[in-house]
Structure formats: C-alpha cells, structure tokens
Write a structure and sequence with these properties.
36 helices; 2 domains; single chain; alpha/beta; Rossmann fold; 6-stranded mixed β-sheet; transport; ABC transporter transmembrane region fold
C-alpha cells in the first residue's frame, strides 16, 4: 500500500503544479533579467518606431525638394536630422540585440539547470515506468533542442515581434497623421497582404507533414536494412532493398513538386503589395487634385501603410515560434514540477547516531511499477546481523537485486517493513540513509571525467589521502599509478578508456570512500573474465571486513567466505545457512546450483585467456601477432588497419562544379525555366522603385489632367507588377521544385545503393549507425537540393535586380548613382557579416552545449548510482563546469548581436541621409531633377536591402556545402571488399568444404583485441559441425568470416579449396543460409519474410520451407 500511496501522491502533486509555458520562464526572471528585458523592449520599440519617424522627415523633405526655393541650409538640416535618427536607431538596435541575447542566455542556463536537477530528483520507479530509450531521448532533447528553441525565441523572436508590431502601429498612426483620408481607404486593404500568406502557409505546412510521412516509409526501409545489414548481405538482397527504397521515394517526389507549386503561389501573393500601391496611387491622385493634399504627405502615408502591413506580416511569422517555445517549455516544466513519490531532495526524517548495520526485512511484498500485478517478493523475511556477510542466490528474476533496491529505498514495498538497527527506514532521512550504504553494481558506472572525480562521487568532500586509501582498499591504486596522468586520467564517456576490471575497481573505491556501514554488491564480478574477477573479488573480500555486506554473485564460488547464504525462491527465502550447511543437502537448490556451476567452470577454465593490465582479454605470446602489429599478409589485403589512411583520403575529397552540374543535367529544361522565373522576379523591385519615384513626381505636377493620365499609367504598371510577381514566382518555384525534388531522389538512391556495397566494418563505425545513415539520407540530400535550387534562385534574382538597378540609376543621374553605389557594399556587407557572425556563434554555442547534453545523457543512464550515492549536487557542479564555455560564447554572441544590429541599422539609415544630402546638393545645382532624385533613391535603397537580405539567406546555405561534401565522400568511396567484383569467381554450385588456415583476426572497431590467433579448422562437406566456447571466444566471428563480412589479418579461409576473397561475394553468399541469434524480420507479411531468401519463390516452396521450420501450423 505504501508504494501505491507514494505513486498516487506523486501524480497528484504533479497534476497540481502549474503547466509550463514561455510565460512561466519569464516569471522566473531575476532583477537583472527584468532590467535587460526592459532595456531590450525599449530598444525594440524605438527601432520599430524609426520607420514612421524617417517617413515623417522624408515627407517634409519631399515637399521642400519639390519646390523651387530649397536652400543649402535646409538640405544640410535634413541630412543632419536623418544622421541623428540613424545614430538613435542604431543605438536602439544595439540595446535590442544585446539585451535580449544576454537575458536569453541567462534564463535558458537557469532553465537547463533546473531541468537537470528535476531529472536527478526523480525516483528509480519513474525511470522504470517510462520507456528507457524514448525517455533518454526526451531528456537530451529537452536539455538541448527545447532549451535552444526557447533561447532563440527570447534572444531574437520576441524582439523582432515587438519591433514589427511597433512598426505596424506607428506606421498606421503616421499614415493617419499625414493623410487620414488615404489611410482610411488603404488600411483595410492590408488584410489582402496577410490572409493569402496565412492560407498558403497552412497548406504548405500540411503538405510538408505529408512529405515527412511519405519519407518516413522510405526511411524505415533504410533503418531496417542498415540495422540488419548482415541479413541483407547474407541473402544477397541489396538490389531488392534498393528497389523497395526507390519505390518508397516516389510519393515524396510527387508531394515535393506539389509543394514547389504551392510555395510559388504563396510567395507570389506578395504581388498584392503592388495592387495596393495601384489603389493608393489612384486615390492619392484624387486627394491631390480634389482635396489639395500635399504630394509628399499622400506618398509617405502610402509608404507607411505598405511598410506597416509588411511588418505586421513579419510579426505574425513569429507566432509559430512562440507556439513552439510554449510546447518546449511545457515539456521542460512537466519534469520540473513533478514531485517524485520517493523524493531524494526530502530532508525530513530522523537519523541514528551510532549505526551498527543490522538489517531486517519483515513480510515484504513488492511489485515493480513497470510490472504491476506481478509480485517479485511475497512475504519475504530476512535478517542480517551487524558485520555479517550474507550472500543472495537464486534464478534470474527471483528477486535478489530487488532486495538491494528496496534497502536503498529506490522503491517502496507494497506491504511489510525494512528495518535498520530496528528502525523503519521510511522514517529515516533519505539522503542520510543512503550515505550509510556503498553500492557496487554488475555494470560498473563511470562518468566522463577523471578517476579522482569518479571516486569522489562516493564522498564529495574527501581529501586526496582518503581517495588513495579507498583506491588501495579496492585494489586499484597500483594500476592507477601506472597511468600517465595517474588519478587525473580521464576515463572517457561511460569509462570507455578503462578495462572492465579497472572500471569495477574504481567503482568499488567509490563505494568504500564513504566508509559505509553496509556494503551492497550486486553481481559485481559477473561481467569480468576470471583474472579480472579474481583481482576484484580480492578487493571485495578485503572491503567487506568489519561491515555488514550483502552479496549477489554470479559465480557461487564468490560466496564461500559468506557467513550465511540465502536462496531466494518464488519471492521468499527457500534455503538459509552457511555454504557448508547448504552443500550438505545434495538435493537442495543451492547444492544443485553449485554442482552445475562447477561443471561449467571446468569447461570455462579450458577456454579462459590470460588478462593483461592494459585491458586486453587475450595473451600476447612470443612468435604470434602482437597487439598493434600487422602480419605481412595484411598489407596485401584490405585490412582494417588501413582505415585511417582511407578516411583521410575521403575527407580530402571535395566535390567540384562539374560533378554538381552533372547531377542536375537531366532536368536542364526545368532548371532553365526556373532561372527565367527568378530572372523575371528579380527585375520587379528596381522597376517598381522606378515607378514609385515617378509617381511621387507626378503628385507635384500643376496640370491636373497630366496627374490623372500619368497616375493611370503607373497604377496599371503596379497591377502588371502584381500579376508578373505571381507568375514569375509560380514558374520559378514550380520548375526549381521539379529539378530539386528529382535531384533529391537521385542523390538518395545513389547514396543508398552505394552504401549497400560497403564492407561490414564501415557499418561498425559509430557514425555509420542505422540512425546516423537515416538522418544523413534525410537531411544531406535535402541540403544539397537547397544548395543548388535556392542558391541558384537567389543569385539569379540578386544579379538581375542589381544589374537593372545600377543601369537605371546610372541612366538617370550618374553622379548620384556613383555615390550611392559606392556606399551600397558597406550596407550589404554589414547585414551579411552580422548574419554570418550570428550563425558562426550559434554553431559554437551548439558545440559547447553538446558537452552538457552528453553529461545529461550520462546522468540519465546512471541515475541509479547517482541516487544511491546522493550525488545530485556533484553532477550539477560538473554540469556548471560544462556550461562555462557555453556562457562565454553566448556572452560574445550578445555583443555581436548588439554591435551587428548597430552597424547594419546605422549604415542603412546613413545611406538615406547621404542620398538625400548629396541629391539635394545636385538638385540645388540644377544637375538632377526632383523625379530622378527620388527614382534613384527608391531604386538603390530598396535594391540594396533586397541584395543584403539575399546575401544573408545564402549564408544559411553553407550547410549545403558540407552536406554536398558528405554525399560525394560516399559516392566516391571505394569499398574495401567489393561484393560484386567482376573478376570474382561465380559458380552455380559449391560442395561446402570449408577450411581456416592460420587465421588471425581482430574486429576493426577493437583492433587491440585479437579474436582469432592462428585458427586452423577444417569442415568437411555435408558435415554437421558445432562450435562451442565462452562468450567472446570467436564462435560468431567464424560464421561472419565465412560469409565474407570481414577480411582476415593474415591466413586464409577457403571454400572448396578456393580463397573466399577470390569469389564474387554475392555469388558465394547465394549458396549460404544464415540464421542468427537475434531473428530479423522485415516490415511486411510473413510470406514476404520467408520469400526474402528467394525472391521468385513459389507458393509451394514457401509452404514447404515453413513446414520444415515447424512454422506452417501456427501461420495457418
């Protein structure tokens, strides 16, 4: 009942906690964050207001410049005012960029720490009831991806939203101030700018989901094939698998082309802007003619309405990011608000002043939360006296480890009591209770830090002398001292740099450091070879002296020195006594287990190899191959020792333009039409600006008839731009979509087909797992498409825009054009460099965050040890240490954000001031007309902004370059064992005689561990041969070598007297049938899986095969 109550209480407390959102994150801000957000918001509001301020100044300037009485003093005054505005806007932008970026870093760091602390606080039952892999992925995702989502919103999106909303509000207010009649008519038309974009955006999102689902099917084929690559190779199913993948890609191709068409229509709706200009142009002219409105007021009011409408659209784009941030925050706060049933942070409860170490279990009933209804312990009773060593034995699942888990209070029993020195442990302070115990588990758990830090998990404030004393007691001091860095040696992630025996002895030292009253040993030596086991067992025997010890041992010989042994059967103590007492009952469970294990151990001794201090499980004898040496024969074969050189060659390969063009060549017509569309769309911005400048000049004409006729011409031009914008975007994105989707499909097919020719050792590498290859096929091909289609599209648009803009400007007034053109590169460079710098800094932050994500992943995997040793605070300190570099990079990013915005905004505003000042000078000197001045102004300012935005977008395409390199590395890589070697021997029939001649072999992933040492083995044709031996002795390796999955270091393997490397491997494998330990079934019907071995199998053959396999009856 106690367990049920604690679980219900945890659920209640969790449900009572407030749900998390972005608002919850902001509520946790301290005074510094409040100040930063206030200053950042002020900067965003000021930045957003700048458009309206500049427009009001330009309105006055246009009205003045249109007359004949403008003076140099007035020109200088306008220029100086615009310069002041530029400084003000730049300063506001600095506050906006710096303050929001800084507070985002501070708040997300605090949030990550809170989340990790909440994860570490949870009880063991929580991790059991949630699926391990999915929960681990969720923990890492929450601490990395989701917090970065929140950081992105806080640092940029909120500021952008405030700025754009302010631009919209102040823009419409300025429009009402400048020309309220025009504003009343034109503002409702803004809905035309927003609604189509929202509709198409939703449709694009739906199509995007369908594409993901469609590719999910294809990705599933890849995942299955790669994770079961040995099965695919052994049944020569590469061609069939590649064909299945190709067919699965077709729906994604069709949907992708449809998405391209919809994207063109969505972006084409921007043309509505020009239709609104046509409305404003016509109605503005009527106001000038009939109401005597000033041309500058009417025109700038129109600009305010258009720019405000675009800003409103820009602000709405951020809404989806806010939704994503709310979802991310909800996931994080769900954990932060969760109060576990057994709370490691709970400091309530009493302590015992002088612990003796007497443990008693009374009538314990228990079931695991993940397996309700299945009692593990049923009326379990056991008493361990102070200082006694008690061994627990029993079959797997009998409840041995459960006893330790309950004593550590990882779980609460359903009924019964557990007593320490006669006191119920539920009444004791939890952290104090666990401090009285030292736990050593079957799997030695180490963290990716130094040996010293790992031992200090046992007692954080221990001195170096205490650490050394614990290491000596654990029989670990000697090997630690032989290491170059001694106690400061890093053990690697999960302790991969240490041997199993070394890791276990470090784990024992950790347990002994706290000088526990109770030592708990849960199969602490079962995963070790006999020599390592002996060293560790000696350490354990020494450690158990003078303290209560409970041992669960795999080898019963380890329990000989135990005072008492309890045999657990059906959740109860079935037999109890010393080794000598229990062995007397020859029919007893314990005696039978001892006899069986003696037989096993005698067999194992014959197979056991000598252990070396460096962790190798194999001896190195004179006259044989030594670890790290390669026999001469390996130089002539494709051995794994050539991997480094080969990898280097792969890394050096880089794709060239010719190769890239050849990949897109089949779709040259679509490419050409896409370029035509992009070229046409690129001509619109300078053409529109030309017409805007001309329209402004028309408003100042004295002849009303001329105003009407000229306005009509430009309004029709704006309507034409609207239609042309829609058409060119549809053409551009539809045809680039065809080219891009077919390129994506071609890349995926080519890469997958190439991968299916690679040797097995390539798949053994960590970065070539099924998940990694699926991700590579999913993302790299898309990034290559983006690199080709988007870059080509953007560059074509930018070149056509820039060319026409420069030509028109030089034709209108070469003097003003040259000055403005000379300043444009500075504006473009400032925007581009800011975007590039921010992206580079973001990558550095991501890299820095990966270390903390790894620690979070480790903490999740090792939660039981962290809980047992009460090491939550130590893990948090390690986490804080990993955040130091991340904080530095984030701090730099906040400065870059502020300075980048300052420079880009200042130069953009300053360009307006310079053009107005120099243009005014030329106007005063009669060297330029009013019309040409503002035509050049609009052409170069708007085109410069378009080019700058295009440049910043192409910066994001740098990812495509690395993806392209990754693709070509695979396509250009030569397999070390070509399965379709055209010179290989193909035979219709083999007899089946197999012979191993002096075969030496190591797995490429473990080159120091020699598996086969000069193996000689001959298997006659048609003979039934069994291979036996201990785990790791090389049984499965022999089968893998016969299949040609790996090549040998030296020696040869012959089939019918011919070296298998002389065969065509696919032809050879077609004569071999493999049934592995883990049965691999592929998605599909039972019939498909049986016929996998023979694609053209008849129904009769399938039934016959299933009958032989004793499967036909249950299938029916």
């Amino acid at each position: 009942m106690a367990a049920e109550l604690s679980r219900d209480e945890a659920k209640r407390k969790t449900s009572d906690a407030s749900s998390g959102s972005l608002q919850t994150v902001l509520k946790q801000s301290d005074w510094m964050d409040m100040l930063l957000m206030a200053l950042g918001s002020m900067g965003s509001v000021a930045d957003g207001s700048s458009m309206a301020i500049i427009m009001i100044i330009l309105c006055d300037l246009m009205n003045k410049y249109s007359g004949t009485s403008v003076t140099i003093e007035e020109i200088n005054k306008f220029a100086l005012t615009l310069t002041y505005v530029a400084v003000g806007v730049a300063s506001a932008s600095f506050l906006e960029g710096f303050c929001w970026a800084r507070t985002a870093e501070r708040q997300t760091f605090r949030l990550r720490r809170q989340y990790l602390q909440a994860v570490l606080r949870q009880d063991v039952g929580f991790f059991d009831t949630n699926q391990g892999a999915s929960l681990a992925s969720q923990v890492v995702s929450n601490i990395s991806v989701n917090t970065l989502t929140i950081q992105g919103v806080l640092s940029e999106k909120i500021a952008n939203f405030i700025s754009n909303i302010t631009t919209f509000i102040t823009g419409q207010a300025a429009a009402l101030y400048l020309s309220w009649r025009l504003a009343i008519v034109a503002i409702p038309a803004l809905l035309m700018l927003i609604i189509p974009g929202l509709v198409y955006g939703k449709l694009l999102g739906e199509v995007g989901k369908k594409i993901q689902e469609a590719y999910g099917v294809a990705g599933g084929i890849v995942e299955q094939a790669v994770s079961s690559i040995r099965t695919v190779y052994s049944y020569v199913a590469e061609e069939r698998t590649a064909k299945d993948y190709k067919n699965a890609l077709k729906p994604a191709l069709e949907l992708g082309i449809k998405q391209g068409l919809m994207k063109g229509m969505a972006i084409g709706t921007v043309g509505i802007t020009f239709a609104v200009w046509a409305l404003q142009g016509w109605y503005g002219s009527t106001l000038v003619i009939n109401r005597g409105a000033k041309g500058g007021n009417v025109f700038t009011a129109g600009l305010c309405i258009i720019y405000g409408g675009l800003a409103l659209g820009g602000s709405l784009i951020n809404v989806k990011y806010f939704i994503e941030a709310n979802i991310a925050a909800a996931r994080i706060f769900e954990m932060i608000h969760r109060v576990p049933g057994i709370d490691s942070a709970d400091e309530q409860g009493k302590t015992i002043s002088d612990v003796k170490g007497e443990v008693e279990f009374r009538d314990i009933e228990f079931e695991y939360p993940s397996r309700p209804g299945s009692l593990v312990l049923n009326k379990f009773n056991l008493k361990v006296m102070s200082g006694q060593t008690v061994g627990l034995v029993g079959t797997s699942g009998s409840g041995k480890s459960t006893v330790i888990n309950l004593l550590e209070r990882f779980y609460e029993p359903l009924r019964g009591d557990i007593l320490l020195d006669g006191v119920d442990i539920k009444t004791l302070q939890l952290k104090w209770l666990r401090n009285q115990m030292g736990l050593v588990t079957q799997e030695p758990v180490l963290f990716a830090t130094s040996i010293k830090e790992n031992i200090l998990f046992g007692k954080e404030d221990a001195s170096m002398e205490e650490v050394i004393r614990a290491a000596k007691a654990a029989n670990a001091h000697n090997f630690i001292n032989k290491l170059s860095e001694k106690y400061n040696t890093l053990v690697g992630q999960l302790g991969t740099q240490m041997s199993e025996g070394q890791k276990q002895r470090i784990s024992i030292a950790r347990a002994l450091l706290r000088n526990p009253k109770i030592l708990l040993l849960d199969e602490a030596t079962s995963a070790l070879d006999s020599i390592s086991e002996k060293a560790v067992q000696d350490a354990l025997n020494q450690a158990s002296i003078g303290r209560t010890t409970i041992i669960i041992a795999h080898h019963l010989s380890a329990l000989r020195n135990a005072d008492l042994i309890a045999v657990i059967q059906s959740g109860q103590v079935g037999e109890f006594g010393s080794h000598e007492q229990l062995i007397q009952n020859s029919s007893g469970t314990y005696a039978v287990m001892v006899k069986l294990q003696r037989t096993y151990m005698n067999d194992e001794v014959l197979l056991e190899a000598e252990d070396t201090e460096d962790g190798s499980a194999f001896p190195v004898h004179d006259g044989t191959i030594r670890v790290g040496e390669t026999p001469d024969k390996s130089l002539s074969r494709n051995s794994s020792f050539g991997m480094i050189t080969n990898q280097q060659q792969e890394d050096d390969s880089s794709p060239n333009l010719r190769q890239l063009i050849s990949m897109t060549a089949p779709e040259w017509k679509s490419t050409l039409l896409g370029c035509v569309g992009a070229l046409g769309y690129g001509l619109i911005p300078p053409s529109n600006s030309f017409c805007l400048g001309a329209l402004l000049a028309v408003y100042f004409e004295n002849d009303h008839t001329e105003i009407r006729s000229q306005t009509r011409i430009y309004c029709f031009a704006f309507l034409a731009f609207a239609v042309f914008t829609f058409l060119t975007n549809v053409i551009q994105h539809y045809y680039f979509g065809i080219m891009g989707e077919k390129l994506t499909e071609r890349v995926r097919e080519a890469v997958f087909e190439k991968i299916l020719t690679f040797e097995i050792e390539w798949f053994d590498q960590e970065n070539n797992s099924s998940g990694a290859i699926c991700a590579r096929l999913a993302t790299d091909a898309v990034m290559v498409r983006t690199l080709v289609t988007d870059r080509l599209s953007l560059l074509t648009q930018a070149v056509s825009s820039a060319t026409l803009a420069v030509v028109l400007a030089l034709m209108l007034s070469w003097r003003l054009a040259l000055v403005a053109i000379a300043l444009e590169p500075g504006v473009i460079a400032a925007v581009y460099l800011r975007e590039m710098t921010m992206r580079i800094m973001s990558k550095k932050i991501l890299k820095a965050q990966s270390e903390s994500s790894e620690l979070a992943s480790e903490a999740f995997g090792n939660h039981k040890i962290i809980t047992a040793f009460g090491s939550q605070e130590k893990v948090l300190k390690l986490y804080d240490r990993t955040q130091v570099s991340s904080k530095k990079e984030s701090n730099k990013q906040s400065w870059y954000a502020g300075v980048g915005l300052f420079v880009s905004q200042f130069l953009t505003s300053a360009l307006i001031a310079v053009i107005c000042w120099y243009g005014g000078k030329l106007l005063f000197q009669k060297k330029i007309t009013y019309k040409h001045l503002f035509q050049i102004f609009f052409i170069l300012v708007s085109t410069g902004r378009v080019i700058a935005e295009t440049a910043s977008m192409t910066a994001d395409l740098s990812k495509g370059t690395s993806a392209l390199k990754s693709v070509f590395q695979i396509l250009q890589r030569e397999t070390k064992m070509d399965p379709e070697n055209p010179d290989g021997i193909k035979t219709e029939k083999i007899n089946g005689e197999i012979e191993f001649k002096q075969v030496y072999f190591t797995y490429p992933a473990r080159p120091k561990q020699i598996i086969l040492r000069g193996l000689d083995l001959k298997i006659e044709a048609a003979k039934f041969v069994a291979l036996v031996g201990r785990s790791g002795s090389g049984k499965s390796t022999i089968i893998r070598l016969i299949e040609g999955f790996y090549d040998t270091l030296s020696g040869s393997i012959e089939v019918d007297g011919i070296d298998i490397m002389r065969y065509n491997l696919r032809a050879l494998r077609s004569h071999i049938a493999l049934v592995s330990q883990e049965p691999t079934l592929f998605a599909g019907t039972i019939r498909d899986n049986i016929a996998y071995a023979k694609q053209n199998a008849t129904e009769a053959e399938i039934i016959e095969a299933s009958s032989i396999a004793n499967a036909h009856e249950f299938i029916r």
